[in-house]
Amino acid sequence: MAQKSWANWSGWVKCSPKKVETPTSEEDLSGIVRRARGTVRVAGSGHSFTPLVETDGTIIKMDGLTGVELFSFDKRQVDVAGGTTISALGLPLKDYDLALANQGDIDKQTITGAIATGTHGTGRALGSLSTQLAAFRLVTANGDVLRCTPDENTDVFEGGRVSLGALGVMSQVRLRCRPAYKLEEHVYPMEVGHCLNRLDAFDDANRHFEFFWFPYADHVIVKTLNETQKGAPDPRPPELRSMRSAENKVMQLACEAGRFIPFLRASLQRYLTTASGESTRVRWSCEAFPSPRTVLFNEMEYAIPAEHGADCVREIAAFIRGRRINVMFPIEFRRVAEDDIWLSPFYGRPSVTISVHQYGKQRYKKLFDGCEAIFRAYGGRPHWGKLHSLTAADFAELYPRWDDFLALRQRLDPDGKFLNPHLKSVFGVS
Ligand SMILES: Cc1cc2nc3c(=O)[nH]c(=O)nc-3n(C[C@H](O)[C@H](O)[C@H](O)COP(=O)(O)OP(=O)(O)OC[C@H]3O[C@@H](n4cnc5c(N)ncnc54)[C@H](O)[C@@H]3O)c2cc1C
Q: What's the pLDDT score for residue 1?
């Protein structure tokens, strides 16, 4: 019980909990949850922009519960302790000749924090990290430990794979993996119209396809990752990765310049789109997915039905340019496969995700309010960990299994131990 303040990655969510607990075993965790009075929130790495963790009650940090064990080589499944970060998974999995099927664009999150919000990467045939769950162990409000699989506590497994930490604390997850693999990355600029008119073809031709669009530029930066047998250096321990890449330094300078001299932004954005030209490199998957992100920002992201992706992103860029919004970050466009997880933004529909970012030293309200109206007109569902203004009534319309989740939450946590003000607003609990 040491630290009594908590802040998220961008520094915009801060709180002063009465207690901060760091359990070192599942039994310890269960005792802490059982004995806790007031609100209990479990924290991962604090990489959510929404106030999911904020509380003046108890914060449970999972740093004391880490590690990876092989469960079955034949089934390619591993057991991962709840506080393990995605970056700490890469090397142990590689030692078992295994890897995750997909990852997002950073690996600092804990595996359970990422799963709790439906964190995803890109790829037409690939779902979010939550779809890679084979089983999990959940410490519920009264301290009981539930083993949740497709056959045991089935409804908790079905509904709990994206649960915002509202059903309990995942002490361990069992992940489905695949044989270790290498990815060849190809990054290059492309004219916007050419890209948006051929999205399906690019999604079909690449295991992972995404693009970044500086909205004042008329080209996008395309990034593809495809499996390869070519040689690659052995994965390096994550802590040796350079945290201050040249790319981030240039981005920081551009953000500061754009902030104080807004008329520079269009030429800066055109420069940033084409400056690095074309590049390719081959790496093991755990090193190929994440990129260092050292320039602080806030973010909004919505999942849109895939067929509306091109129209929606065009409208977002037109809104930013039309209102001359001072933003230096690119719009990010990714593809995610549909799933059947009750609170997954990808429930029942192949989706694209469109993200807008604002530099951490600049206000985001005008940008995010305008973009959110456009996302909502396309039936978008917000990323749970990224900023949005939706409440229970909105979610009830967006999620066919919403009432099932509410009933499950009420059954597992009738006194609302895991509910903070943000989650009360999300779930419509007074
Ligand atoms: C720089 C940056 C890049 C990002 N890139 C991506 C990306 O590529 N793709 C994407 O989809 N998202 C991305 N995100 C969003 C991020 O992945 C999610 O917000 C994720 O939930 C953060 O994980 P975390 O470990 O930091 O969890 P936190 O933000 O600390 O917590 C998130 C939620 O998980 C719950 N939780 C944490 N641990 C547990 C547990 N053991 N049991 C139950 N619930 C738990 C918390 O209570 C909370 O509700 C990015 C965020 C940042 C800041």
A: 47
